Amino acid sequence: EVSTEDPETAFCTLANREDLNPEEGSIHHCLYQFTRNEKLTETNKLLCDTCTQRNYGPKKNIKSEKKYVYTNAKKQMLISLAPPVLTLHLKRFQQAGFNLRKVNRHIKFPEVIDLAPFCTAKCKNVAEGDTKVLYSLYGVVEHNGTMRSGHYTAYAKMRSMNSRLSDLVLGGQSPQAVETEPLKGQWFHISDTHVQAVSASKVLSCQAYLLFYERLL
């Protein structure tokens, strides 16, 4: 679907990205890089239907003559609809010659994350005037081992029901209450049939592979 946006606001976000200054090796830095503004030039130019028709006439005549106009463009991936549950999947492998190698680097992640710097200014389910889109961490999947073998374990937070999340899932309503703290509860480490209570600091120090957040605000 192609939509026409005001070029002055097309790349605007709910909160100023430039105020972030994200620390390298953090989930904020990952999101910042994933949603960065990219320039499409030279061999990456964008095929422009409007420019093509302006130069060569109606589209039905273009394909037969194989005449197209490509133009420089900007591209940015932003969130247009804030999900009730946010799942972040970290790429834990890299190419090493003809082989894949696991990335064991620790990526810092917070208990509460604000998605506003990564959401379009016209995010569909955020109330007008809001500049925060907050999520609370409730689950982590960790992988121990190599690309060839290993073991998955999980951290899960036992907590009271999130009424704001219920409103979002069942009624599609935007949360109204202002909540900036993580939901209170006890963290547990689950490995097969073994379950053990752990501290939040233990969870935040793990080598996350999947992160699960639920929306607060």
UniProtKB/TrEMBL annotation:
Coiled coil: none annotated. Gene3D superfamilies: Cysteine proteinases (3.90.70.10). Residues 1-216 form the USP domain. GO terms for biological process: protein deubiquitination. It holds the Pfam family UCH. One of its GO terms (cellular component) is nucleus. The keyword Hydrolase applies. One of its GO terms (molecular function) is cysteine-type deubiquitinase activity. Keywords: Hydrolase. This is UBP16 hydrolase.
